[in-house]
Amino acid sequence: MARGGAMTFTVSIDDDAVLAGLRAQRRAINQDVKKTTLIAGEKTVLPTTKRLAPSIIRGPLTVRSTTRGAYITTTARGRWRKVTGLLNFGGTVKATIRPVNAKALKIGDRYVARVTGPRTYRAKEFMQRSVQANLGRFSQSVEEQMTALFQSRITYARTFG
Predict the structure, then answer these.
(1) Greatest pairwise CA separation for the chain in angstroms
(2) How does pLDDT run across 51-66, given as a tens digit for each residue?
(3) Is residue 111 part of a domain?
(4) d(CA 53, CA 75)
(5) Do residues 72 and 62 lie in contact, with contact meaning Cβ atoms separated by under 8 Å?
(6) What is the distance between the alpha carbons of residues 142 and 67, in angstroms, rounded to a whole number?
(7) Calpha distance 128→126 (Å, rounded)
(8) 131: left (phi > 0), else alpha (psi -120 to 50), else beta?
(9) The whole model's pTM is what?
(10) Which of 24, 37, 82, 86 is the most buried (most CB within 10 A)?
(11) How many domains are there within the chain?
């Protein structure tokens, strides 16, 4: 007993188990966010992106996700990846074009042995336009799925906790 009738005591809390549980839940939530944004992107944004994209590159367009969000990309490799970038973002190509199975190329109404001048491609921005057009639907879909996931976790914790 301390002076003046006051009592002194010490409390020790072992919070290692609590911190481990919170870490596990954070990992599970990050996985849920990644899965949810991927599903929402595939359902809401990807169909519009494929509709707006030039037909030559529609097939390999896909959605990928991280724990922080989702993005549209292509599964194409090599030169098709460059073609996708040129068609979406625009740019200039300076490489020479030579015929493969013929002796000349037909450009308009004339024939040439090769094309050496730069070609400029205007940006179509189909990826950006599809994201802007579907951002509300995407957000709503993610919100609904995450709410359902959290509700199921709370219900499970009440039942078996």
Answers:
(1) 108
(2) 999 999 999 999 999 9
(3) yes
(4) 15
(5) yes
(6) 13
(7) 6
(8) alpha
(9) 0.74
(10) 37
(11) 1
For residue 110, give Cα distances in angstroms to 71, 83, 117, 120.
Answer: 43, 26, 16, 20
Domain that holds residue 108: 92-122
Tokens 């939530």 sit on residue: 29
Cross-strand bridge partners of residue 121: 91
At residue 129, the pLDDT reads 96
Alpha-carbon distances of 20 from 16, 96, 137, 145, rounded to whole Å: 6, 60, 36, 26
Note the pLDDT tens digit of each residue in 66-112.
998 999 999 999 999 999 999 999 999 999 989 988 888 888 899 99
What confidence tier does 159 reach under pLDDT thresholds 50, 70, 90? low
Average pLDDT taken over every residue of the chain: 89
Residue 56 placed within a domain: no
Domain-located, residue 99:
yes
| 102-141 confidence digits (pLDDT tens) | 888 888 899 999 999 999 999 999 999 999 999 999 999 9
Whether the CB-CB separation of 100 and 92 falls below 8 Å is answered with: no
Determine, yes or no, domain membership for 154.
no
Say if residues 130 and 48 touch (Cβ distance below 8 Å): yes
Identify each DSSP E strand in 2-139 by its residue range: 61-65, 70-74, 91-93, 105-107, 110-112, 119-121
